Amino acid sequence: MSSTSTTAATTATTQGIHNLVQGQYPYRHKKPEFKDKYDERRWCLEHLAGAFRVFGRKGYAEGSAGHISVRDPVDPETFWINPLGTHFSLMKVSDLVHVDKEGRVIGGNLAAVNAAGFKIHSELHKARPDVNAACHTHSVWGKAYSTFGKPLEMINQDVCIFYKAHSVYENFGGVVLEKEEGINIAKAIGNGKGVILQNHGLLTVGETIDEAAYLFTLMERCCEVQMQVDKINPMFEKKIIDDEEAAYTYHMTSDPETLYTEFQPDYELELELTNGAFLK
Q1: Cβ neighbourhood burial of 229 (10 Å; 0-12, 13-18, 19+)
Q2: Residue 105, Cβ density class (10 Å: 0-12 exposed, 13-18 middle, ≥19 buried)
Q3: For residue 217, what are the contacts with CB-CB under 8 A and spacing of at least 6?
Q4: DSSP state of 159
Q5: What are the 10-residue block averages of pLDDT along the chain, 280 residues in total?
Q6: Count of domains in the chain?
Q7: What range does the domain containing 54 cover?
Q8: Is residue 24 part of a domain?
Q9: What are the distances in angstroms from CA 76 to CA 224, 226, 243?
Q10: Residue 80 maps to which CATH number?
């Protein structure tokens, strides 16, 4: 690590977007705080629907597979998830389904939900009280890279957000219809931000929907970059970022507030592209 980086590492002891921005006006994408839990619920549902629209635009939809869940701020023992069979690009707030911790539909849109999806998410939420949102889809690059069953290499700045914060779940047990498989996946992710499910795809978690969704888009892109690099690697020597620099980059860029802000450009783009249609 350079002397400049070493100095920065000793002075930037706190994490947060304040380390990365400066200007005459406050940064407008800071994570909001709520006094009313019902206001927070509405905000969560708007961002959940928006995240699906982003995933749809990025091509993550695959039939009826894929799901994002969020813990309900009003009743934290319950969750909101997408209905089975609605395309990500058509998702609206009014489409979202409220389920209890066993996956029983209790409110919102009373449509059926993906049983396999909730088996994963419910066990994650039980194991990780800090996790309020989880994302999983059958995206192209995530599926492709997952076949190798190996973690991402620290080959650029962006992937350092996953430095010692992602894992590989090697024991693919088919479609997740049993509680045990969900428990095993929750154990595999541990305290990390994401897990590569071998022969299956990617799963990411976060304190907010925005954090989990951004991490998913980032992990998907990192899988793509890794595969492109590996394709031409025999021709060139591959430089791996050393542990000290990777750890510093992780510290500066991986906190929940910073990762929340990273998703806001995509969320605002969906507001513009859809004229806010997903808020209905």
Answers
A1: middle
A2: middle
A3: 54, 55, 58, 263, 266
A4: G
A5: 40 57 65 95 99 98 93 96 96 97 93 82 88 96 97 98 97 66 88 96 97 99 97 85 97 95 97 97
A6: 1
A7: 33-274
A8: no
A9: 35, 37, 37
A10: 3.40.225.10
Strand boundaries in 109-200, DSSP class E: 133-137, 166-169, 194-197
How far is the C-alpha of 231 from the C-alpha of 31, rounded, in Å? 39
Name the one residue in this structure whose structure tokens are 């889809």: 137
Is 279 contained in some domain?
no
- Strands, DSSP E only, in the chain? 67-71, 79-81, 97-99, 105-108, 133-137, 166-169, 194-197, 201-206
In a domain, residue 7? The reply is no
Contact assessment for residue 101 and residue 122, using Cβ atoms and an 8 Å cutoff: yes
Residue 27 included in any domain: no
pLDDT at 232: 86
Residue 191's pLDDT is what? 94
